[in-house]
Specification:
- By secondary structure, this protein is α+β, with helices and mostly antiparallel strands.
- Helices cover 23% and strands 39% of the residues.
- Strands 1-2-3-11 form a four-stranded antiparallel beta sheet, with helices on one face. It has a four-stranded antiparallel beta sheet with strand order 4-10-9-5. Strands 7-6-8 form a three-stranded antiparallel beta sheet.
- Strand 9 and strand 10 form a beta hairpin.
- It is elongated, with a radius of gyration of 22 Å.
């Protein structure tokens, strides 16, 4: 866990403002070892490292690291970027005809962006099946009057289903029997970076 480092960053009282940087990382197999430095501002143009922390992430599934400063850090087991790892999925089928296909698409997009915070592309789970004389896009799919709209995390599919029902389309939401690949996975979030892994362990470094 990262409770002690989080406490040091967010709740400890310092004499001046602080910020945190990821100062190095090492990747070995499916393990990433991160080194964080906490800086305190001494003056307008001067700062000093007052603490260093090391976080070991084991069973890494996905990561995106940026060297930008931050002052908050979170370790979560419920986040949209975890859906492909620890959430059940479902298939959303529809049937019926509507005169406002563009309205459906717009509302699906808005609801998707809201729920995923813009972190997952709208087309991620939409059925992209193509056949002769078909464009394979969402407008064509809805014009077909029936079919598989999307296959993805149940939470998101339920939102899609609500939108289709508002526009008068009948729906069937069928749970998948596929077991989530990493039900114990969590996501570490800091400074625009993230790491999805099974285990996270922290240690405060003695660096002086």
């Amino acid at each position: 866990m990262i409770t002690k480092m989080k406490e040091a960053i967010e709740n400890e009282i310092y004499e001046s403002d602080i910020y945190v940087l990821l100062t190095s990382y090492e990747l070995a197999g499916n393990t990433i070892t991160l080194t964080f430095s906490i800086f305190i501002e001494l003056s307008q143009d001067e700062e000093e490292i007052i603490q260093k922390w090391q976080v070991t992430c084991d069973g890494v599934q996905e990561y995106n690291l940026r060297y930008s400063d931050f002052d908050t850090v979170d370790l979560l087991d419920n986040h949209c970027l975890l859906w492909d790892y620890n959430k059940q999925t479902a298939n959303l089928f529809f049937r019926g005809e509507t005169t406002n296909i563009k309205g459906i698409i717009a509302d699906l997009f808005i609801r998707h962006q809201h729920l995923t915070e813009g972190l997952i592309p709208f087309v991620q789970y939409i059925n992209s099946y193509k056949e002769d004389h078909a464009f394979g896009d969402l407008e064509w799919l809805l014009s077909a009057k029936q079919g598989l709209l999307a296959d993805g995390p149940t939470e998101l599919m339920q939102i899609y289903e609500e939108v289709l029902n508002i526009y008068g389309l009948k729906t069937s939401l069928l749970p998948s029997d596929v077991t989530p690949p990493c039900s114990e996975c969590k996501i570490l979030l800091f400074g625009g970076s993230y790491i999805i892994a099974r285990d996270f362990n922290e240690v405060k470094l003695d660096y002086k």
